[in-house]
Amino acid sequence: MATDHREPLHSTTTDNIPPTTKPTKKAARTIEETYQKKTQLEHILLRPDTYIGSIEKHEQTLWVWENDQMVKRPISYVPGLYKIFDEILVNAADNKQRDPKMDSVKVNIDVGNNLISVYNNGDGIPVEIHQEEKVYVPELIFGHLLTSSNYDDSIKKTTGGRNGYGAKLANIFSTEFTIETADGKRNRRYKQVFTNNMGKKLEPTITKCKNSENWTMVSFKPDLSKFGMECLEDDVVALMKKRVVDLAGCLGKSVKVELDGKRVPPKTFEDYVKLYLQPSTDTLRIYEKVNERWEICVSIADGHFEQVSFVNNIATIKGGTHVDYITNQIANHLVTVVKKQNKHANLKAHNVKNYLWVFVNALIDNPAFDSQTKETLTIKQSSFGSTCELSPEFLKKVAKSDIVKRVVSWVQFKQQNDLKKTDGNKRGKLNIPKLEEANFAATNNSDNCTLILTEGDSAKALAMSGLSVVGQDYYGVFPLRGKLLNVREASPKQLQENAEIQNIKKILGLQHGKIYDNVKSLRYGHLMIMADQDHDGSHIKGLLINFLHSFWPSLLKVPEFVLEFITPIVKATNKKTKNVISFYTMPEYEAWKENLGHKAREYKIKYYKGLGTSNGKEGAEYFADLEKHKKDFVWADDEDGDAIELAFSKKKIEARKNWLRALQAGTFFDSKEKHIPYRDFINKELILFSMADLQRSIPSMVDGLKPGQRKILFCAFKKPIFQEVKVAQFSGYVSEHSAYHHGEQSLVSTIIGMAQNFIGSNNINLFYPSGQFGTRQMGGKDHASGRYIYTKLSPITRHLFHKADELLLNYLNEDGQSIEPTWFIPIIPMVLVNGSEGIGTGWSSFIPNYNPRDIIANLKRLLNGEQMVPMDPWYKWFKGTIQKTTSKDTGYTTVGVFEENEDNNSLNITELPIRRWTQEYKEFLEAASLSGKDKEPFIEEYNAHNDDTTVHFEVVMTANQMNKAKEEGLLKKFKLTTTLSTSNMHLFDANGVIKKYDTPEQILEDFFHLRLDYYEKRKNALLHELGKASLQLENKVRFIREVVEGTLVVSNRKKADLCAELKVKGYTPLPKEAVLEASIAGAVDHVEGSEETEEGSEEETAEMAVEEQKPSAGTASKTIPGTEYDYLLSMAIGTLTYEKMQQLWHERDTKKAEFDELTNTPSKSLWLRDLDSLNNQLDEQDKRDAKDEAERRKQQEKARAKGPGGGRNARKPARKAVTKKPSATSAVVIEPMDTSANDVPVPKPRGKAAGQKKAPAKGKGKATLVDEDDDEIPSLAERMAQQNLHSVQDGEIVELEDRLAKHNIESSPDQEEVPKKKAPAKRPAAAKKKATTIISDDENEEDIDLSDDSDFEVLVAPPEEKKKGGRKPAAAKPPAAAATKKRGAAAGAAAKTSKQTGGQKLITEVLKPVVEASPEKKVRKMRPSPFNKKSGSVLNKKGEEEKEEDEMVVGESSGEVGAKARPQRANRKKMTYVISDSEEEDEEVDDEASEDSDFDDDE
């Protein structure tokens, strides 16, 4: 059988391809020809690239050894030839690992003879026959494939050989290969020669040698034909020599490496690195020998990463995991360093690597590579067999090197390039929303065009009104959306994503990084800023100037490029001549008003804080006189730039603090100046914003409040809100009455914050939280919307802020409106009680909470001249501990509570540290129980048993997890500690100067001296008031006596003559004090001494005398001419009686007794008395809290007893006011009519009920109606069953009247009057209804409060005494109480009476008609305003006093309705019922209905 002829194998693929010839038709290939099997040797020769790499020539730039130095140049070499040389070289180096005594490696490259030899004097190869393979070991190693001593991976070796190819590849690709070795142990010398690509081998020659003789030498002649070469070329030889030098650097001092009989220079790895980095003072070279296995050196690369690395003496020219291990440590550290310098740097580790040149020499256990060429190490870091943690000193040296500068420079360059993407240019029209382009913008006339940047759309509308005058050819308008970004420290990403900045750049045509000498290349030649004339408007101007100075400072130097358009802040219009005077700053207006004095009343004042206040006509007027309103900013020198940087750079914090400290009162910029230097704008205008921002953020030491909180408390006292009011409505009231200029949502948040009382919030909440005000679950962020929750003043608040101190406060004035004081003066420093936190311009502040009882105790010590006891932070309800930090004196550590259960390796966490919220902690435990990438869970599971007030987590772990947690520390591992610092306690002192306090005792001491001084002032003020009241009463008694006796005639005389006679007779003149303020457009408070006040009753005049003692700050307070004796002449005729004279004389004696008692009471005693009262209130609160907690636990136990559904989820009940035992003082509750059979019929009086409504007798208590939550009020039938109203005897009522004459229902010593209510409108009669009256015996004021926020209130209007006949006077009925909302005309006398009684009737007068009331009542539904203190205009006061005023009602029963029902309004909650006992209703209805507004002006 004939066999096919097989062509000899060649070492390249191309050689095995037959030459291209003209295709000839031949038979198809057989199966045997198609599918072939090769021997290993044949395969290596056929596919050499698999084993030694390419055998083609490559052009590459590499380091080579030439002329005894390292040179990097392009070379041409064959990777396969280089690889077989490297395999023999690495084998020689590996022998150092087997025999540490080896100290010589000799390499000879004989180019002429094409002979390479490598010699080492380590232990020789065992010259012995292998028992299994039956050949000598040297032949086995070098002449048989897949033989190696490195196959046992259980033995950790740091050699280069691994796969059993190595030296055999050099044999295969050589024409001649000789192995020689001396085995001193066996005294044998071995030599064997292989030829023909390891195809032939000669028999080994074995001779004897000495015991001390150990060496191995491999000599080979590469088969150059297989590498496409005729001889060893220079480039290849230079590369091989470089590899010998590598070996010298890796082996170090212990091995002498020779090349062609000459020792190569590097003796250490550090010396080796120097061959690459030329020795120079500027050359960076940071070397560290981390341990015996790792040597590292770092230098700077020029924009792309470089590395020279070795693994077990193998040159890993492409790096690998060992290089990544080192570079990642360096790069990550440098990323942190660079981000500290440029926190907005978008920098990753690979960006830093581009500037690193890393040298690594490592010994790795059993290394694995990507291929037999061993160019890349692939073994995982965890399998290295060693670690290489770079030392902090090494990293610090790297961080201080020029590498960081290079990286920062690259970051800045990249940022600049990114910003250039949003550049503008001078081109045609732009399509930007809301932009009104100038017609000549981006044309040859663009340098004459002005872009007007306005503060919001409303200001744009004003500017557009102005364009009607100047036209739109040269003026463009673009509205800004609020405040511009402070670009000085903004990240490039922020700048790129900020639409406002991009639009401004495009509209102006600004190009990033360009220096402008003129504006020819811009789309507009001028930039005019049109902002409000308030502090925020100044900030907007400053931010725009800062924007230009940060990127285009040259533009600020261009004359008239930056302009501002100013508008009046106040306009004064003469009421007669209609002349208008405009003021552009508040100091100018104040000076003008002060100079005018009383003549200021001749002007009507209107404030223009916002541009939106001006109308279109005024806008046209402004632009018509453009030169007057246009100001241009001018650049003088670099001091202007320094001023801008001072105001906006975060690097100038300390300088900015000094800048704010140097602010002088009364600083403002003169608006008459045409040119504004940038430094003057910063130092005279912008500084005012910075100070205002600081004041909004840092509280006062005196009252512990920020301005927003102070406004809220001021309005709570002014209203006052002793009854619940909806938070959203209250915020509107605050905004209206305190000149609050910010969003109402922030006001709502502040109110909620002042009412919160969970752990970590307030120790004493000044407002009562009725509803969901937030819990410790989310740190208060889980509160409900202000539309759904209610609040009122907490009972303790008036014990902290005494009403008598209000006479001493310095009330501010804004927009002509008297607003909150500079600060309140509580009896203890509230900033320590509730703590504070805030960040403002230049300063931040944090003050922890302290125990109010500790504060009271220390104040008492100071009052007694004793030393204070140091105080530690304290948080109400907190069950953990607060410990002083041992490392520093200014810190505390709050520690939660946990219990360890060793039996089941679990923790019971029952308290979290301060300000670590439950939901946040739950998420932490959730993450701790999950596994992730490079993260093992450290707990098995957890169970939560929390509620809104308590914490209970049960954490389950394995024994191993528990042990690890204990080693780290349970507190630390489970984040059960937080820190409180007292090193940043900044507050405004009493003089408004920012001050740092080191200890809470320093705050207490400052407060003590101020508060003691104000107690003395309070005493003097009260003595003055008592003296004045006593004098007034004496004059009144004398006046009444002389009028009664006829010695003084007051009727039918001119007032001037009468006043002159009173003066002659020696009556004391007591003129009214009035604020000298012009008529203010939109002002809430009326000017005292108005017509309405002058016509008031005698009692009102007395009250006004007290109120007039509180002039507003910043306004001239003088007396009103002609009012010296109004306190006498305004007395009602009904007071000119003997009984009234006796009453006034008795009151005079009482005032004198009070005066004498107060005179003999030291100021310190007053303070001690208040402190004792506060202590009692705290005790009462603790009792209520303890009772609530006991009730909550009882509910929990009850729920647990019921099984599933109960337990820890039971909610804590709302705290209720303490109900005392029945007493003489009772309150009347009128409930909505119930048509059930349980109603008790009430007897109907005979005859028509008529008569005038009278004010209750002076001195009687005021009836305050009770308002309780629906869920706290028993059913009507139950209460009627409990209180048999009709069993009250006449004698008991008389006794009750006597007791009520001595007691005031409003038991709080400091409670203000209930707001005045409007008289009810008259309506036609309707179906009659039964009345049910409930008497409450609770004296506690908290139980008799009526929610002022309710849509309807319940008031009683009993029948009045008839003019003729009927029942005897004893059975006469008292006047009806005024309703809270007018629908028609006011009820004359009732409106007057409501001023004295606050719209409520004495309880005795209400009780009388109940006994003999009509069984058929007439009821009308009323909807009062929650803030309507002034119930409406008082019409026909004198005439209506004599009218019959029966209340007209709308029936609620199933009977006929006498009048057409009003359409039902949506969202009604509560209803007010006005009950009348008269059978017939007056049919007169006043057509003038009062305005249906929920927010009428006060007074």
From TrEMBL:
It catalyses: ATP-dependent breakage, passage and rejoining of double-stranded DNA. The keyword Ubl conjugation does not apply. It comes from the Eukaryota. The keyword DNA-binding applies. One of its GO terms (cellular component) is nucleus. Residues 1209-1219, 1317-1331, 1462-1471 have a biased composition (Basic residues). Its cofactor is Ca(2+); Mg(2+). GO terms for molecular function: ATP binding; DNA binding; DNA topoisomerase type II (double strand cut, ATP-hydrolyzing) activity; metal ion binding. Residues 449-563 form the Toprim domain. Residues 1180-1200 have a biased composition (Basic and acidic residues). Signal peptide: none annotated. Pfam families: DNA_gyraseB, DNA_topoisoIV, HATPase_c, Toprim, TOPRIM_C. GO terms for biological process: DNA topological change; resolution of meiotic recombination intermediates; sister chromatid segregation. It is an enzyme of class 5 (isomerase). Residues 698-1171 form the Topo IIA-type catalytic domain. The active site is at Y788 (o-(5'-phospho-dna)-tyrosine intermediate). Residues 1090-1106, 1336-1352, 1477-1499 have a biased composition (Acidic residues). Residues 1368-1393 have a biased composition (Low complexity). Its EC number is 5.6.2.2. Keywords: ATP-binding, DNA-binding, Isomerase, Magnesium, Metal-binding, Nucleotide-binding, Topoisomerase. SUPFAM superfamilies: ATPase domain of HSP90 chaperone/DNA topoisomerase II/histidine kinase, Ribosomal protein S5 domain 2-like, Type II DNA topoisomerase. Homodimer. Belongs to the type II topoisomerase family. Control of topological states of DNA by transient breakage and subsequent rejoining of DNA strands. Topoisomerase II makes double-strand breaks. This is DNA topoisomerase 2.
